[in-house]
Write a structure and sequence with these properties.
single chain, alpha/beta, 8 helices, 6 strands, Group-specific protein
Length: about 190
């Protein structure tokens, strides 16, 4: 029923670690990481905490936990995506986990952790977050980026239709992988 890779990924899937979809150098890949790692600009995030009167630890100590990267943008993308804190996911494996959990779920909320909370497009310098709780990821994007809270499965579906048969769009990837929950939404 469970192979070793499946069990290892399933153990990492929880409320602290979240799934995100990334476009980098024209390719789409799914990743798993701590929710805070998807706050792309920690300088802005730390400043917001300090401005609100919160005690914040030294930014350098926190950044050390993210492979020394304070701002994740198109220039630091490769280092970030290769960091030990960011785990590439095979969409087929993610689908297998969903199929294992779904039959016993009493509500959508019980499997919501399997759905991506963000689409990070390093090529277009665009971030879209879509989630029910946690830090406002889209508010802390690098300078020159567009950050928005949006249902990216539907937004990027429209961009796929206008670009023709782009095999690297989110809709095409989801359909090719047979990942029913996403391909059914887009």
């Amino acid at each position: 029923m469970f192979n070793d890779e499946f069990a290892a990924i399933a153990d990492l899937l929880d409320q602290q670690n979240v799934v995100a979809v990334v476009r980098y150098n024209g390719a789409i890949q799914w990743y798993l990481s701590d929710r805070d790692n998807w706050v792309l600009d920690w300088n802005k995030w730390w400043s917001a905490f300090a401005a609100a009167g919160h005690q914040v630890p030294a930014l350098s100590a926190a950044v050390a936990q993210r492979s020394g990267i304070a701002v994740v943008n198109e220039e630091s993308a490769e280092a970030f995506l290769n960091a030990k804190e960011v785990i590439p996911l095979d969409a087929g494996l993610l689908r297998q986990v969903l199929l294992e959990y779904f039959p016993n779920a009493q509500s959508w909320w019980e499997v919501s952790f399997l759905f991506p909370v963000a689409f990070v497009d390093f090529d277009a310098r665009r971030f879209a977050g879509f989630y029910q709780d946690g830090p406002r990821l889209e508010q802390y994007v690098p300078d020159g980026w567009l950050g928005e809270f949006a249902d990216f499965a539907h937004i990027y579906r429209a961009s796929c239709k206008t670009s023709g048969t782009d095999e690297n769009c989110l809709a095409a990837q989801a359909k090719r992988w047979g990942w029913a929950p996403i391909s059914g939404m887009i």
